[in-house]
Design a protein that fits this description.
The protein is mainly alpha-helical. The protein has one domain (5-62). Helices cover 86% and strands 0% of the residues. It has three helices and no strands. The protein has helices at 5-12, 16-25, 27-62. Helix 1 packs across helix 2 and helix 2 (16-25) crosses helix 3 (27-62). The radius of gyration is 18 Å and the shape is elongated. 0% of the residues are buried.
Length: 63
């Protein structure tokens, strides 16, 4: 699931304006946060893919 900046701000318990200010004034901090959110997204996708593969393997075993 792709998060909006509003969603990210809510998760960080900050105002969305703070996040936008960090983007302008603290680019390294902002970039680090975005990489963290992207990593979380990739891990969640990998977990879903793994679970799908397990289900496929179980289905193949039954046939």
């Amino acid at each position: 699931m792709k998060l909006t900046q509003q969603d990210m701000a809510r998760l960080l318990e900050i105002d969305a304006r703070t996040l936008r200010n960090w983007r302008k004034n603290k680019p390294f901090l902002y970039q680090t946060l975005m990489q963290g959110f992207k990593l979380q997204e990739v891990v969640e996708q990998a977990k879903e893919n793994y679970e799908t593969l397990i289900d496929l393997a179980k289905t193949s075993e039954k046939e």
